[in-house]
Write a structure and sequence with these properties.
The complex is a heterodimer of chains A (103) and B (828). Chain A is mostly beta strands and 103 residues long. Chain A is 0% helix and 45% strand. In chain A, a hairpin with a 6-residue loop joins strand 6 (61-63) and strand 7. In chain B, helix 1 (13-25) links the parallel strand 1 and strand 2. Classes of the chains: A mainly beta (103), B alpha/beta (828).
Chain lengths: 103, 828
């Protein structure tokens, strides 16, 4: 595996919270779940472009702050019956550090 | 562990709804087998009428296609009639010999049409109206024969008659009783209905008892003969031609199988509140059931039963079915008819009636002991859903009484061009102004997706899911599309969201009684179904905890909507707006200079006045927010709560300070109130206004609290609303001094904070609990008022300026910082 970039310490993200990473591929939202899993999504809701990083995180999903679409953190897919998909980015946790892989 | 076996006898709407509910709760608990006597997967029986009328096809009304059974691992035996239950060996046997063993058995055998016991009732051409086979036969007969007779002038009979007429037959409805739909309508409404159906070409013979059905030469039914009534004139014909006779004279619970297994039946399979029969391994739901002596024939109660049954099959064991109030809507396109509850009245009841025969509108409301107990509506059913809700909730209507007949929507709803009657709307009319959803979209979704509830429609179409002002319209569209299947949600009992079965009221009460202090603790104690809730329940729980236990429960920023987490108002492009605080709407040249400097420094694209008369700086990037607040703070200013479920602003007129008409110093009063309430969180936003005289330039009449100065003191009004639904504030009391205004206002707001449900505005809160309840606590009882006032001051005493914290505390400031990465430094 190549191309991993260090983002921040896990503790820099609140549990059930997120941080925004500025990248050459646009803003990326990094989420931390209650179980301390981390996920990365393009910070734009497939519905009307809302910043997903500002939504409420629950389970393995985030609710967009603009119109309430629920987006799965693992695959970026909107929870049915809504449709749409946010681009995902590989994110991993290693020794308390969060790493991101740009495609 | 080996899965338990669940066998379902009956592949109809009740049985499959129970299975669906069960799969939601415990998808892997059972190995499931389903028997259905009909050769079809589960379909929406209610929509057979539109199929007959040619408005839909059979494929449109399939609820669970064959693939659904396969996807959920359900063994489906279609076209197999179960003939035997062996309770000792715990197995069922079908007519063709197919057997399934069970650990639990669910009977959902539905009902059978009642065939009049008259000679000729077995002739070809004599059918009931129950299933796809009957419907197909009616459609086929309409193409080849002329005369149809429908026996029974109830809901089903009229829908059958209407459909046959639309298919080109000459249709006569024969009814034993003096008026149509006597179980749902009073005589006035029924006569209006009859006239309207006659205008469409249907014929009616009332108070006629069938004596025999007569066969013709082909062996098929050819005529119907009636018994001579008392005073019969021999000149009247006793026979009319009939090539098709549809029996719609009622249904009987289908209990034959249960009885053969010696399960206790009494006009239905007798079940308890957990939907168990006298054999606790055997459950029963649907039209075959007698619960507390009642067998229900409408689908809404069956769905409630299915939910309770699933809860027990899933071993949750917390749900009970306690019976249903039902409502009826006739699904004949273009006829608006609604009835609910006890619509006939009787001793101890009053009737409120509007009867406009020429205009084709009739409304009757039956009232008993200040509650609405029943309603019949003809011609204008716009408020059917609302009346039904009032009947179900048993809400006290004393204060509404003089306006009750005019409905809920006679004032103030915006967003759908003032239209309040769904039936008359064309398909392309916009229903939901927020999400651009037209009537046709909603009807299509209801039919093609098999939707039954308001929540379903919201999820699939987004209609009514934003501001909610079109909810009444959407409910009407739902009601007119699916008729009796529709039941409005019970607001008091409605769960907060899909994460829990508990309502707002129960959660509030439990948090108080059990001294719960954290969100995870509350979720654990109250058996939440999800590990950390959702964006609906977490903000509600957070509010209930910190408002019930101020100083003890800790605020959870991650359970707040972004505006309250970021302390600014998110905009459509992800930027934020900042509204600098101007106490009471007062400012100074120096403050205006600071605001102007900030607008230039951060290149604020839009500067405008808000509805609350404050200056709004729109389009600020999130990472700039702490800098903006630092600049405001350096000038001795503070930002404003223009975004939260909290105190927003106190709007004022210039008052006695300047105005030649002013009687009180309204600006000063407004500043005192806004300072007192600084940082007050609440179930929903709270807006105040203070006017210096009854000319009321501060528009206090549409605020949560409106204070109007008069020469002798102040009048206090509460529960007004200028938003989605314009609601005029109600007079609470009159007081003399500024301190009294503060005390009474604070007491009212604290009561609302303690009793309001999350996202319930003061107008809805007061409508729910009644103004008398508010007056009893805030006006008549000084001790209670003072205690409420003290509790509000206690809750506010430690409120920390959130904007200063964002500037000064690194851990808080992190929320606003974007992480920069160096993409060149890639680690291999």
């Amino acid at each position: 595996m190549t191309g991993w970039i260090r983002v921040c310490a896990l503790d820099d993200i609140a549990p059930l919270g997120s941080r925004v990473v500025a990248s050459s591929q646009g803003d990326i939202a990094i989420f931390r779940t209650a179980a301390d899993q981390v996920f990365g999504l393009h910070d734009k809701c497939p519905h009307k472009g809302g910043p997903l990083s500002q939504g409420i995180v629950h389970g393995n999903a985030v609710t967009c702050p603009l119109h309430g679409l629920k987006i799965g953190l693992k695959d970026g897919e909107a929870v049915a019956p809504d449709k749409g998909c946010a681009k995902t980015f590989a994110v991993k946790l290693d020794a308390g550090e969060v790493w991101l892989q740009l495609k | 562990m080996k899965k338990q076996k669940l066998v379902v006898v009956g592949n109809g709407m009740a049985g499959m709804r129970a299975v669906e509910e069960l799969l939601k709760l415990a998808p892997d608990l059972y190995d499931i087998a389903v028997f259905g006597a009909e050769p079809h997967p589960n379909y929406n029986r209610i929509l057979l009428s539109p199929v007959l009328a040619g408005e839909m096809t059979i494929n449109d009304i399939i609820l669970n296609p064959l693939g659904w059974y396969a996807d959920n691992g359900i063994r489906l035996h279609v076209g197999k009639l179960v003939t035997k239950i062996d309770r000792v060996a715990r197995k069922v046997v079908a007519a063709d010999g197919t057997e399934e063993e069970y650990d639990r058995l669910l009977l959902a055998t539905g009902s059978t049409p009642f065939m009049l016991p008259v000679p000729g009732n077995d002739l070809p051409g004599v059918i009931s109206y129950r299933d796809i086979k009957d419907t197909d036969e009616m459609i086929a007969t309409a193409a080849t024969h002329k005369h149809a007779v429908v026996i029974g002038g109830g809901l089903l009979g009229l829908e059958a008659a209407n459909g046959l007429k639309l298919r080109g037959m000459d249709v006569t409805v024969v009814h034993l009783m003096p008026w149509l739909m006597e179980r749902q309508l009073d005589k006035v409404a029924a006569d209006m209905l009859k006239a309207s159906l006659e205008a469409r070409g249907l014929k009616f013979l009332l108070e006629k008892q069938t004596e025999a059905l007569l066969g013709g030469e082909s062996g098929r039914v050819a005529a119907i003969r009636f018994k001579p009534a008392p005073g019969y004139d021999p000149g009247d014909g006793l026979e009319i031609p009939a090539d098709l006779v549809v029996m719609a004279a009622g249904i009987r619970p289908n209990t034959a199988l249960a009885e053969s297994a010696r399960l206790h039946c009494n006009r239905g399979i007798v079940v308890n509140d957990t939907m168990q029969t006298y054999d606790p391994r055997i459950y029963a739901v649907g039209e075959c059931v007698a619960h507390r002596g009642i067998a229900y024939g409408l689908v809404a109660p069956l769905f409630e039963q299915a939910k309770v049954c699933a809860n027990h099959l899933a071993n949750f064991g917390i749900a009970r079915y306690t019976g249903s109030v039902t409502s009826t809507k006739l699904k004949v396109t273009g006829i608006d008819l609604f009835s609910a509850g006890n619509f006939m009245g009787g001793p101890g009841t009053d009737e409120i009636v509007l009867n406009d025969a020429a205009g084709g509108v009739y409304k009757k409301l039956v009232v008993k002991n200040d509650t609405l107990v029943g309603a019949v509506l003809y011609g204008d059913t716009a408020d059917g859903g609302w009346y039904f809700q009032l009947v179900k909730d048993g809400q006290n209507i004393r204060e509404l009484r003089d306006q009750l007949l005019f409905g809920q929507n006679h004032v103030g709803d915006g967003g759908h061009a003032g239209v309040s009657k769904a039936a008359s709307m064309p398909d392309e009319a916009e229903v939901c102004g927020c999400n651009g959803v037209c009537k046709g979209d909603i009807v299509k979704a209801i039919k093609s997706q098999g939707l039954f509830t308001l929540d379903d429609v919201r999820k699939h179409t987004k209609a009514s899911s934003s501001c909610g002002s079109c909810t009444g319209l959407v409910e009407q569209i739902l009601a007119s599309t699916i008729g009796g299947a529709y039941t409005p949600a019970d607001a008091k009992e409605k769960p907060i969201c899909a994460c829990t079965d508990h309502s707002h009221g129960v959660v509030r009460q439990t948090i108080r009684e059990r001294h719960l202090l954290t969100i995870p603790g509350t979720m654990h104690y109250m058996d939440w179904k999800t590990p950390d809730g959702c964006a609906t329940c977490r903000p509600a729980l957070n509010y209930y905890l910190i408002s019930t236990w101020p100083g003890e429960a800790k605020d959870d920023p991650q359970s707040r909507f972004v505006n309250e987490r970021a302390h600014a108002n998110i905009q459509k492009d992800g930027t934020f707006s900042v509204v600098p605080r101007m106490w009471g709407g007062l400012t100074t040249p120096a403050e205006l200079r600071v605001i102007a400097d900030i607008a230039e420094k951060y290149q604020v694209p839009t500067v405008k006045m808000t509805g609350g008369a404050r200056i709004d700086l729109l389009g600020i990037r999130k990472e700039d927010l702490p800098k903006v607040w630092a600049d405001l703070g350096a000038a001795g200013m503070v930002s404003g709560h223009a975004y939260g479920k909290s105190i927003r602003t106190v709007k004022t007129c210039v008052g006695a300070e300047h105005c030649r008409f002013g009687t009180q110093r309204s600006m000063e009063m407004g500043v005192k109130l806004e300072k007192m309430l600084f940082g007050m969180g609440s179930p929903h936003k709270v807006k105040l206004a203070v006017s210096g005289c009854p000319r009321n330039c501060a528009e206090a009449g549409i605020k949560d609290i409106g204070v109007i100065g008069v020469d002798s003191g102040y009048e206090i009004y509460v529960a007004g609303n200028g938003g989605i639904k314009t609601e005029v504030a109600q007079f609470l009391c009159k007081v003399k001094t500024d301190d009294e205004v503060k005390e009474y206002s604070a007491a009212f707001l604290q009561l609302y904070r303690e009793e309001g449900f999350y996202l319930e505005r003061t107008c809805h809160y007061v409508a729910r609990v009644g103004l008398d309840h508010v007056k009893a606590a805030v006006v008549s009882d000084p001790l209670t008022r003072k205690a409420l006032y003290e509790r509000l001051l206690f809750a506010l005493k430690d409120y920390a300026d959130p904007w200063r914290e964002a500037v000064e505390k690194p851990a808080v400031r992190r929320e606003y910082q974007v992480i920069e990465i160096r993409e060149a430094e890639v680690v291999s």
